[in-house]
Amino acid sequence: MLEQFRQMLNDCIRIGLAENVTSLKSLSLKAYKQLSRYDVASYYKLCAISAATGILRNYRKAKRRNPYVKEPYARRLRLTTCYGFKVRDGGLLLPTDTKEHIWIPLISHVQAAIAGFMVRSVTLTEDRVSLAYAKDTEEVQPQGFIGIDRNLDNVTVAMSDALLKRFDLSEATQTKAIYRQVRSHFKRNDVRIRRLISGKYGRKQRERVQQILHHASKLIVEEAKAKQNGIAMEKLTGIRRLYRRGNWQGRWYRGRMNSWSYAELQRQIEYKAKWEGLPVIYVHPRGTSSKCSICGEDMKPEENRMLRCHSCGYAVDRDVNAAKNILAAGTLRFGAVGLAGEAMVAASATLRESAKSMRGS
Ligand SMILES: [Zn+2]
Fold first, then answer.
1. How many Å apart are CA 95 and CA 103, to the nearest integer?
2. What's the pLDDT tens digit per position in 267-311?
3. Which of 127, 155, 261, 347 is exposed most, by the fewest CB atoms within 10 A?
4. How open is the CA angle 65-66-72, to the nearest 5 degrees?
5. pLDDT (mean) for 155-184
6. 158 CA from centroid of ligand 1 (Å)
């Protein structure tokens, strides 16, 4: 069944390339008839066409950047369907072709997880079944916000009720550092050995880092849920440029800074928060680490990761200061969204103004 789907997908890709179409409608018109030789339920044909349009679009985008990019071809056995399946009697009923069905029993943990929710799609690979499920949530009117700042070894959280928390992620940093070291030893060796080692170590390392990030994101969202708080985080675009080659930090720092993925933590926090109906806001990172969270003036670094404001004299841990700035910017922006009349004013508001509004609250 998976092999048949792979062939259909490659047929669709070939037709799309030959006819130079990427839209779902035109590819359906060109390809659907040619899939008639496959004895499968019609929704699998539509799934193949839909998957092919995604692949063709990515290919077209990549080709604009690099004209020598290879033409796409599906090698992996993987099928995603939104139609035809049923969840019932503790299992998943999945049609294989126009006449046959298979029944995949679901363990009680999975049954409990999806109980009461709508299963939207099923993804099959050789050794895995994934169910995607959804629920309608109503967005909570937040009682406050929590601002999240990410650092080398931790995330620091500042909350509207003035509480501060720090989640230690140094193990994730170390795990990745060890992995990098192991990998570097194999650089000049045989490709097959390198693949084997980096495959095994790579998987272990990724799983461990995922575990650590899931633990932290879970605790953060639980805290937000208990307080009915929204979440404010840094917008990632631009900030990453800070840690690129050519900046003053040097390779070691850059490597460490990128060593646990903030993007992955953000992704986890966002979907876990949305599941609970908690609003998530992204703020521009400009000034969050250098401006005073009380008065908005420039801060001077002191020893032990402390900062002091030369204007108001406020002395604070620099991670805490950044988290407070993110919190203030998020709170301000949510106010702008919540009160449409003030949106125009807030859109032009600077970090400095947001820091002031925090002092007033
Ligand atoms: Zn100040």
1. 9
2. 999 999 999 999 999 998 888 888 999 999 999 999 888 999 999
3. 127
4. 105
5. 84
6. 17
